[in-house]
What we know:
The structure holds two protein chains of two kinds.
Chain A: E1 4-7, E2 10-13, E3 18-25, E4 31-37, E5 44-50, E6 53-57, E7 64-70, E8 73-79, E9 87-94, E10 106-107, E11 111-115
Chain B: E1 3-5, E2 10-14, E3 19-21, E4 24-26, E5 32-38, E6 44-50, E7 56-58, E8 64-68, E9 73-78, E10 87-94, E11 107-108, E12 112-117
Parallel strand pairs in B: 2-12
Antiparallel strand pairs in B: 1-4, 3-9, 5-6, 5-10, 7-8, 8-9, 10-11, 10-12
Amino acid sequence: DTEVTQTPKHLVMGMTNKKSLKCEQHMGHRAMYWYKQKAKKPPELMFVYSYEKLSINESVPSRFSPECPNSSLLNLHLHALQPEDSALYLCASSRQVDGVSSYEQYFGPGTRLTVT
Amino acid sequence: AQSVAQPEDQVNVAEGNPLTVKCTYSVSGNPYLFWYVQYPNRGLQFLLKYITGDNLVKGSYGFEAEFNKSQTSFHLKKPSALVSDSALYFCAVRDPQRSGAGSYQLTFGKGTKLSVIP
C-alpha cells in the first residue's frame, strides 16, 4: 500500500477563518512533507517533518502552522490566509529523510484551497 | 545549488509512437534523480528513480529513463505512447552530498505537459 490520503479534497475559506488540512499515511514512513503547488507549476516545499519533529521550514508565513501528532498523521493549520494562498496543497511521505536515503516521496491527491 | 531543467513546456506525440521527455540537471555531487507524473487535479505519482548502477532505469507503466552523466541528462522515454499517458511530467533531483537539510530536499523541474494524440 503506497497511499497517502488527504482531507478535505476541496476547501473554500474566508480570510478570517481558521481551518485545518489533514494528511495520513500507514506505510510506516517517518518523513512527511507539505508542499504548495500553483497551477501548472512544480510543487514548492513548505515543511518537512522527520520522526515527528520539524526539520525544515522554508520561510513559510506564520499563518501556516504545521503539526505532526504522530508518525502517521500530519496537519496544516490555516489562519488569516490571503487570496494568493489559494493553491493545491500536497502532502508527501518517505521512508526516511537523512542525506543518504534514496527513498522516493509518495504524494497524496492534495487539497484544493480557495481563499476568498 | 542544485537545479533541474525541463526544456520543453509541451510535447505532442501520436499514439503508438515513441515518446521522450527531456531533463537535465546540475548538482555538485552524484545525483539522485526522479520522475513523477501528475494527472489533472491529482497529486504527483512516482514513476522511477536513478540512484546508482545501470544507467537505464525501468519504471511504472512501461516508462524508462536513461541516466547520462557526461550530458547531465535523465530523459524519460516510452516505446509506444498511449492517450492515457497525457499528463504533466516532473523531473526532480536530490544531492545527498549537500550538508544538513539541503541533502534531502527535492528540486523539481518546471514540468512538461505531454499530449498523446489519438
